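To: structure desk
From: M.T.
Subject: fold request, one chain
Message: Could you run this one when you get a chance? Sequence is below, nothing fancy, just the single chain.
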Amino acid sequence: MEDEDTREYVVLVNSEEQYSLWLADLEIPKGWNQVFARNNKKACLDYVKEVWTDMRPLSLRKAMAEAASRPPAGN
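Reply: Done. Structure tokens follow.
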């Protein structure tokens, strides 16, 4: 039987709107911001599952939206 992870985590997000679980006692790395308070791993994973509905990085989503809004070439 696997031991239950009893450590506390936070959820971080970067400028590309990518999420990560991070051990709560560690310093938050540069370029990341905390978006979910210190909690157990399951609560953090549940939060990420709820909010991270599009896994594509923000820059890719923007580029795809911009390309979709342009008229087709040759028109």
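Reply (cont.): The chain has one domain: 8-69. Let me know if you need anything else for the meeting.
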